[in-house]
Amino acid sequence: MSFVEIEKHDGVMVIRMNRPERLNALGAEMRDGLAQAWCEFRDSRELEVAIYTGTGRAFCAGDDMKEAVERGSVHAAAATRRENPYNDGTLDKPVIVAINGFAMGGGFMLVERADLRVAVRGATLESSEAKRWLLRGYNHGVKNCLPHAVATELAFAYRFTSERLHELGFLNRLVEADELMPTAHEMAAHLLTLPPACRINTMAMMRALRPRVPSELEELAERLKNHGAKDDPMESRRAFAQKRAPRFKGWDDPADRYRTPGLRSARK
């Protein structure tokens, strides 16, 4: 069974993650299949719009924690880090994400990279990085123009329902389960009625307008990513895979608790 299924029809490519027994977790084989599919979409002269979805009760549960524990690293193996134009943000064609269920961690990031978003009612979404890293996930609210309090909630890995995210403007459409793919296809069909150059030019402009975290704050983030016990990210993954509560150390040097980098130190 292939972990990634594709369908092609009338200028539209459907890319479907198909690992329902693992909630479409991003293991090595899944990542490789997705990279191949997105390269095929990019290189095709017939395919102009993509619909990205999942099989089963999840869109994508994020990184495969069991694989991370087995390889002994929080980072994907070098062999799996192949070119993926969707993840790299180099596509010049629109992508519609059709969220059929849970979108957690890396799955949430796949959602937010899309240009248009439609979700089923009752779906659960979570930016899970705060559970897995010393600092990650701080920028999702900024990129999605969410109010600061909501962005903070998102950064701390609170869960959101699709209903709430639709109210906040993060999702374009909220539908019943049987309307998910028809709605995504209707959105794709509309895009294909536009003059081709207008579709491409508008896509380039709208992506250029997306907010970005200022460079000085990115520099601060780089310092904060190393502020804490180096093994805690792996401990988070071990605990998840073993279905137990994590035993975090906090800091390798207890005094580091009181040496949190700030903007002033980032500017030096």
What do these coordinates show?
The structure is a single chain. Helices cover 41% and strands 16% of the residues. Helix 2 packs across helix 12 (232-242). It starts with a strand and ends with a helix. The chain has two domains: 4-208, 2-enoyl-CoA Hydratase, Chain A, domain 1; 215-267, no CATH class. The longest helix is centred in the N-terminal third of the chain and has 16 residues, at 28-43. It has a six-stranded mixed β-sheet with strand order 1-2-3-5-7-10, with helices on both faces. A four-stranded mixed β-sheet has the order 4-6-8-9. Strand 1 (4-9) and strand 2 (12-17) form a beta hairpin. The chain has 13 helices and ten strands. The protein is an alpha/beta fold and 268 residues long.
